[in-house]
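$ run holo --ligand "1,3-dihydroxyacetonephosphate" --emit tokens
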Amino acid sequence: MVLQQLHENTSIVDRIIKLKKERNAIILAHNYQIPEIQDMADFVGDSLGLSQAATKTNANVIVLCGVYFMAETASILCPNKKIIIPDPDAGCSLAATINCDELRAWKRKHPNAVVVTYVNTTAEIKAESDYCCTSTNALKIIDAIPSEKEILFAPDMFLGAYVSAMTGRKLHIWPGECHVHAGIKPEDIMKLWNRHPHAEFLIHPECGCVTSCMYYLAKNDIPSQRSYILSTEGMIKRAKASPAKEFVVATETGIIHRLHKENPGKVFHPVSENAVCKYMKMITLEKVLNSLENMVYEVKVPGDIASRARVAIQRMMQLA
Ligand code: 13P
Ligand code: SF4
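-- output --
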């Protein structure tokens, strides 16, 4: 059964490679994608890396193996390329926590505030923002805003609390959360802390445990040389650079594949096996093949929204 599946996958991958050449297409995949997708992608990375890769490629077609807002971001940055997502229902529970009417009402209450929104938002939300940010550069973006300015930060409250604590800035924070990361609790971390006394802890700032981890770090209850709050790409870099041989990883479990692959001999424990993003897992090899065969499903952000959203994303990319 396993052998038969392997054989089928190989034949699908061969067909994908052939079609990719015919269409002058490139496949970009997020760090949370299933291993089969990561292994055949031309580029695997975090949200910022995917945006950067989209702007650098000469390909005419970008197949975005990730969630919908990532394909929208590629469309905003590359209006002359065809952006396709293998499953248009691959959404994001965090992006869904704020809509345009809610953001506009919030802005009306704080008319002089600078609006910073996380990349996990719809194109319409980005169009209403002054700056976009990702988990890689959120601190840099906030630091670049003059200290007297009021800031609205949306939609992730855990990332917002982390950024506020690290920069010392008071932010108005939208109460949004990602269902996968919010489920990672401080007690999950503490349990593994004692079980793996030599492991380093790699923690995504969207996690529900991040505020308490910062508190424990400040009190020295957990030593700072063993804990790192990082974006998914930051985790990949830290795992490579670190002398540690064992890591506990607090984010979506899809990243474990790349961590293993790029660090043979090191051990990675997911903090929770349940930290699985069902939207990221909607992309399969069969759907990628279908997307290249039939050039579906195109994601095209309308021109007026795209041009306003592009300003916020480009401001971020200049600072990143
Ligand atoms: P990264 O930009 O760190 O990859 O995070 C994206 C995301 O969706 C996290 O849930
Ligand atoms: Fe969105 Fe959470 Fe999935 Fe990331 S893990 S894409 S934030 S639902």
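-- notes --
The mean pLDDT is 95.
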